[in-house]
Amino acid sequence: MSYTGVLHLSVKKRQQKTVLGDCYYEGTMKITRPVYLEENEPTLYCIHVGGGYVDGDRYKTSIHLTEAAAVSVTTQSSTKIYRTPTDCVKQETIINLARNSVLEYFPDPIIAYEEAKFFQNTVVHMEEGACYFASDIITPGWAEDGSFFKYAWIRSKQKIYRNNKLIFFDHLCLEPGEDFTSIMQMEGYTHIGTLLLIHDQADRTFRLELDQLVENYQEGIRFGISKLPVNGFILRILAYNTGIIERIFHSVHALARKSLLGKEALEWRKY
Asked: What angle do CA 103, 104, 107 make, to 5 degrees?
């Protein structure tokens, strides 16, 4: 298959410091040099140089962490999906986390514009002791008449395996229509966010902290927290704007770093 953009990166632990090992990119995808917001752990910024995803684009990203490596990965800006009149945009992400590695994967929101069709598929393989924090935010883009939900459809699939056993499968399908905001779908809301936290210490005690934190943001949102088959949780939020979801995710991420990783909150410093 011919790809519009390809990105492969591998990070490894060298003595007490995580460093970038193999790195390869082509097409419209690039990555910055590692930025050490923390002394021994790099932050990597993925960049799309084309300005947005268009009709028929194909993208592939692979991230590999060796044993005990720790890295934070984000994007430089939001992922914009423009009109796709003949063929959808497809994005494939493959993540491999070796024993005791830590990946914090927080891309900026996906913005789907009028008549956009987008499919993303994420597969994560984790070994014993690995930690995975990840978020995904989907928001409707601008339409000429000023209304929401002019994109055609968005489908997002994610599978997570731990020691080769499937522990999580999610298939989110958004197809706007007359009843799209009704009960059992978006229930009147326009934006949706998903946050995954998998860590050996993400137990009932952490869940109570998480519940209390998110309940402080009750106004203007609906949310649910579900336990996973392993120690970890999925948080899903419905809201009216991107900002409130990002604020909640930032607070939850900060709580998870403090309670589970023993670290301070991470400031991405994008702007």
From this structure: 125
